[in-house]
Amino acid sequence: MPVPVFLHGRTVRLEPLGEHHIEGLAAAAAEDRSSYAFTPVPHGPEATARYVAEALAARAAGRALPFATVRIADGLVMGSTRFCELDYWQGPVQWPPAPRGPLGDPLTAIPDAVEIGGTWLSAHAQGTGVNTETKLLMLRHAFETWGVRRVSLRADSRNARSRAAIERLGAVLEGVHRAHTRGLDGMVRGTAFYSILDEEWPGVRAGLEHRVEHRTGAGHRHTPQLARPLVSA
C-alpha cells in the first residue's frame, strides 16, 4: 500500500494518524456533536482510542491511509479524514471486476483508483474553508503524485450538508443507491456516489485553488502561514 505521508497546505496539515492524536481528536469531537447525525465520529477518550486503533489496523492491512487534520498555526487537531477503497488495476484482467491488492512490493504500490472518506471536523472548523483545503491537498496527492484515474466520494443520501460540500468540490453525482445500507440511526438509507476523473482534475483543481486563495488571501491576511505553498511531502 502507499506509504504514509504528510500533506502540507497554507493553514492545514494532514498528518498520518497516530496514537498521539487521540487526545486532540477526542477534544475536537466533543465541541458540538449536533452535525454528526450521519457521520461516524468517536465520542469520548475510550471511543477515540478504539477509533484510532481500528484506523491503524486498516492502514496495516492496506485498506486505508488515515490522517489527522491539524491547524498549522498552533498544532490544534481539528478532525480526521482518510484515503480508502484503494483499487489496483495492474495485471491480468479480472472478471467480474473486484477490488484487489497490488502486484509486487506492497510498500511501494500506488493505487489506480481511490476513495476519500471518513471525513469529519470539529464544530468550530466547519464552514471555515478547512474542508476545501484538505480536499485540495488529498486530490492533488491522488492525481498528481499517485496518478490515479478516479477519486470517489460518497455520503448518506439524507445528508444534505455533506452532499453540498462534495458537490462544491466539483465532484459529479453518479447516482444514488437506494436502500443501500443501514445508517447510523439504524434506518435503511440510500447512498449518494460521486466521482472526479483524471481528465476533470485540472478544472476541479483550478476551482479549489481559487477558493483557497480567496479565503486565505482575503479573509485571513493576518495569519503568518499564508505564504506557505500547497505541497505534499
From TrEMBL:
Q: What is this protein called?
A: GNAT family N-acetyltransferase
- Per the database record, which ranges form the N-acetyltransferase domain? 12-171
Q: Where is this region: Disordered?
A: 214-233
Write the record's keywords in alphabetical order, separated by commas: Acyltransferase, Transferase
The record's listing under SUPFAM superfamilies reads: Acyl-CoA N-acyltransferases (Nat) (SSF55729)
Q: What does the record give as EC number?
A: 2.3.-.-
Under Pfam families, the record lists: Acetyltransf_3
Q: What is the lineage of its organism?
A: Bacteria, Bacillati, Actinomycetota, Actinomycetes, Kitasatosporales
Q: InterPro entries in the record, alphabetically?
A: Acyl_CoA_acyltransferase (IPR016181), GNAT_dom (IPR000182)
- Record GO terms (molecular function): acyltransferase activity
Which EC class is the enzyme in?
Answer: transferase
